[in-house]
Structures are given as C-alpha cells and as structure tokens.
Design goal:
By secondary structure, the protein is α/β, with parallel strands linked by helices. The chain has one domain: Nucleoside phosphorylase domain (Rossmann fold). It is built from 7 helices and 11 strands. It has helices at about 70-75, 135-145, 170-175, 190-195, 220-245, 275-280, 285-290; strands at about 5-10, 20-25, 40-45, 45-55, 80-90, 100-105, 105-110, 150-155, 155-160, 180-185, 200-210. The protein starts with a strand and ends with a helix.
Length: about 290
C-alpha cells in the first residue's frame, strides 16, 4: 500500500473547495445499512480524497442516528487508507477559545445508543484502543492547520456524549473534573470502528463555544455554534489543501494497518459465515492473507 487515499468525515461546507479535481459523488452500498450520504471523491494536489458528510447533506441526521458502521465500511470499500475527522466541539477549558482547532488524542465515551463494533457473536475481536488516534496523521493534520492559519492546540481529551440535547451545567462541570478538555457528540464509536477497520484515524476539533460550565457564561446557543462553524469552514478547507501538499509521496506502513492480526480471537474454522460475509471489507486484508496460506 503505497498511495494515500484520505477519507474526510465532517460537515458539508468542507467540500466546497475549488481544489478538488475530478470531483464526483459516488454511492457505496454496505452490509451495515446506508452511510450518511454518497462519497465525494477526487484529487487535491494529486492525492486521492473521499469526503463523507457525517450528518448527510443538509444536516439531516442527528448524532445518535449517524450510521457510523456504514460510514467507516463505505470509506474502507472506497479504498481509503486513513481517515481525518473534522468536528465541531465545545470547550471545557478557558484557554481553548471559540475558533481554536484542537488535535484530539484521547476519548471518554459516554454514548450508549449506538452500534459500537463490527464484531459480535460468530466473530470476536478486541482491538487495542489505549492510543485511539494515529499520531502520524494527527501531526500532519496539526501542521497543516497551522499553515492554514488556525490557532492549534495539540493534545486533548474528547468527551463523547450521546445527545442530541446539550449538557446540563452539572454534567459539564463533572466532565471537567474527569480531565476532559472538549466535548462533542460524534467521535464515538467512529474512532473505535476506524480502528477495527484498520484505518488510522485522526480528529481535529473546531471549537464553536464554551460548554455551559462557566459561572459567568451564557447558555450554549445553537445560533452561536452555527456562526462559529461558518467562520471555521474556510480554514478547514485550507487545512485539507495543506495536508494534501504535505503528505509524503509514498505512504509508509502504519502499525494500525495490521491491528487485526493480534485482535481477532475466533479461529477461521469457528467463525460465523453470516457475520464474516458482512466483514468482507473490514477484514479484507486478513481474509486475503488467509486465503493465500
């Protein structure tokens, strides 16, 4: 695997860039249901990109109804080698001001109503998640964000909440006590599923507001969030272009590329055929290797 194909998961505004050459929307079917939308594929400075609107064009899907399994599977089927997520986040720290771009490196998962794994009865796997993001892609994206003019903070813990309601003040203050730096509704189980699919994953969070923990602050206002999102969009577009420029000409292998080698527990002769058929993309490399043995 020597060529980069970067999957970008984020808002629709990220894709309105004149730098994307040969752009076309393609539909990708998955055994996990429909992804949030079609993929917009093309090249930027020679690098392949596949853009996926996480909430669908027009922001039709609330966080709990985003089919993360279908989204990750679709990007895998489209040939993506790595995934960069760009997400709106709330700040739980005074120094992470609205407009800042935050490179997330840890997660606390408080979601509860979502399908969290590709694996289950018939095929069991336990992927390591101690370090849930790809440091190489995170550094490349952070550098690109700085070149694009963003105020970048490197290293943060992201509290993933279920939503769609925003936090209570007590919850927001509790999350700060836990050591969380930012809060959002979409990174989990997205990051877990990317790891299961052997796709290195990085997340750049774009701060839209302070969460409601501040004693002298106003309640979070969705109008404020949307206005900050719009302000961040142009910088995010430039980030993607700068990332394309900065990627090495040849993609070096990543340890995440082969994480299933030590994560799959169920031996081949005991695996359930029905689930294995659905895992044809996620486990493509493992299946191909075993067929060749």
């Amino acid at each position: 695997m020597s060529e980069w194909t970067i999957g970008i998961i984020g808002g629709s505004g990220l894709y309105a860039t004149d730098s994307l050459e040969g752009a076309q929307w393609i539909a990708v079917d998955t055994p996990w249901g429909k992804p949030s939308d079609e993929l917009l594929v093309g090249r930027i400075h020679g690098v392949k990109f596949a853009f996926l609107p996480r909430h669908g064009r027009g922001h039709r899907l609330p966080p709990s109804h985003v089919n993360a399994r279908a989204n990750i599977d679709a990007l895998k089927r489209a040939g993506c080698t790595d995934i960069l997520a760009l997400s709106a986040i709330g700040s739980l720290k005074e120094e992470l001001t609205p407009g800042a771009f935050v490179v997330v490196d840890q997660f606390i998962d408080r979601t509860f109503a979502r399908d969290r794994s590709f694996f289950g009865p018939g095929v069991v796997a336990h992927v390591p998640m101690a370090d849930p993001v790809c440091p190489r892609l995170s550094d490349l994206a952070a550098n690109a964000a700085e070149v694009a003019g963003a105020d970048v903070a490197r290293g943060a813990t992201y509290l993933a909440m279920e939503g769609p309601q925003l936090s209570t003040r007590a919850e927001s203050r509790l999350y700060r006590q836990w050591g969380s730096d930012v809060i959002g509704m979409t990174a989990m189980p997205e990051a877990r599923l990317a790891r299961e699919a052997e796709l290195p994953y990085a997340l750049i969070g774009m701060v839209t507001d302070y969460d409601c923990w501040r004693s002298d602050g106003d309640d979070v206002d969705i109008t404020q969030i949307l206005a900050q999102l719009q302000a961040n969009a142009a910088t995010a577009q430039r980030l993607i272009v700068e990332l394309a420029k900065a990627l090495p000409g040849e993609r070096p292998p990543s340890p995440i590329d082969t994480v299933l080698d030590t994560a799959l527990i169920t031996p081949p002769d005991a695996r359930g055929a029905t689930l294995m058929a659905k895992l044809d993309a996620v486990c493509r490399r493992v299946l191909a290797r075993q067929e060749g043995e």
